[in-house]
Design goal:
This protein has 9 helices and 12 strands. With 322 residues, the chain is an alpha/beta fold. It folds into 2 domains: 141 residues, Rossmann fold; 166 residues, 2-Layer Sandwich (Dihydrodipicolinate Reductase, domain 2), CATH 3.30.360. The longest helix is centred in the C-terminal third of the chain and has 17 residues.
Length: 322
């Protein structure tokens, strides 16, 4: 158990001042998940991105000076970049570490990748003792979910992943906001090495690396290899993300809509219904639109990436703490 039998677990979030960490704290307060303590750790106050608009004061966020401060916690959520997460994982201060930085990496044998709907609760419990769990990239989780729902195994699959600013953290959101305002007021002045994110669709520097990681994560989550080609792009979107999945024609394609409609975590929209990232913001489910033809099918999936990642991490914590 994450906590001794009969006791509620003590939880900690490292990276609580970031986009995903903030979602974790918010969702833990909304769900029927009883815990003894929740402590929030984040970057030093001087290093945190300033909010775009003045918000009401949130819960106290403490600066984490050493992984040793996490000793005594039953479950620690690591909503941080890979380097600080690796230092905490090496120290292994808590009973269970749930690593959300795994979203940007190829899976490894010593850190199982798990996600609701793709990993059974029994499997999570088998892996529980002294483990660090990896949370996949939301795009990988959604692609794997769609392929499982439609029983797509050996066919070639193409996927275009469109990421918004929230996937890169609150600083990226603030940058997009400020650049958009400057551009609309004809005063945008970028430094030589600065990328224009406002009103721009582009391939990020790590596009190939992230595409490879997502393809490997899909194979790991489905526990089978896939002929999957992934393209990554960044768009001028504040919150939310999208994945377009391209599938070849199959004889059972007419049944796909019914399968998608019945799948947990997916909302199939009909032709003409809104299916943009604005509608997905704040949603726990993924909005899916299916377009079929004699050549094959395209699935347009929009989702709140930070929320999907946070929900997956909380599902792991609820499972190991049951």
């Amino acid at each position: 158990m994450a906590a001794r039998s009969g006791e509620h677990p003590k939880l900690a979030i490292v990276g609580a001042s970031g986009t995903v960490g903030g979602q974790l704290a918010e969702l833990l307060g909304q769900r029927d998940f009883t815990y003894a303590e929740l402590k929030l750790f984040g970057a030093p106050a001087s290093a945190r991105a300033k909010p775009i608009l003045a918000d009401e004061p949130g819960p106290e966020v403490n600066e984490l000076e050493s992984p040793a401060e996490l000793a005594g916690f039953d479950v620690v959520f690591l909503a941080t970049p890979s380097t600080p997460a690796a230092a905490i994982l090496a120290a292994s201060p808590a009973s269970i570490q749930i690593d959300l930085s795994a979203a940007n990496r190829v899976p490894t044998a010593d850190q199982p990748l798990v996600a609701p709907g793709l990993t059974s609760r029994e499997r999570v419990l088998e892996l529980r003792p002294g483990r660090a769990f990896g949370i996949p990239h939301p795009a990988a989780q959604i692609i794997a979910t769609v392929l499982r729902t439609l029983a797509i195994d050996a066919e070639f699959v193409g996927a275009n992943v469109l990421l918004g600013a929230s996937g890169a953290g609150r600083e990226a959101i603030a940058t997009l906001f400020n650049q958009s305002a400057d551009l609309l007021n004809a005063r945008l002045d970028l430094a030589d090495e600065e990328t224009q994110t406002a009103f721009n669709l582009f391939l990020p520097e790590d596009a190939d690396e992230l595409a490879g990681a997502i393809a490997a994560q899909v194979a790991e989550l489905r526990r089978k290899p896939h002929a999957l080609a992934v393209q990554i792009a960044r768009g001028p979107i504040f919150h939310g993300a999208a994945v377009a999945i391209f599938l070849p024609y199959r004889a059972d394609l007419p049944s796909w809509a019914a399968r998608l409609r019945e799948a947990p975590g997916l909302i199939l929209v009909e032709s003409g219904e809104a299916s943009g990232t604005v509608e997905a913001a704040g949603q726990e489910a993924v909005i899916v639109k299916l377009t079929a033809s004699r050549a094959g099918a395209t699935l347009w999936c929009v989702f709140d990436a930070a929320r999907v990642a946070a929900l997956s991490a909380i599902w792991v914590a609820e499972t190991v703490s049951a």
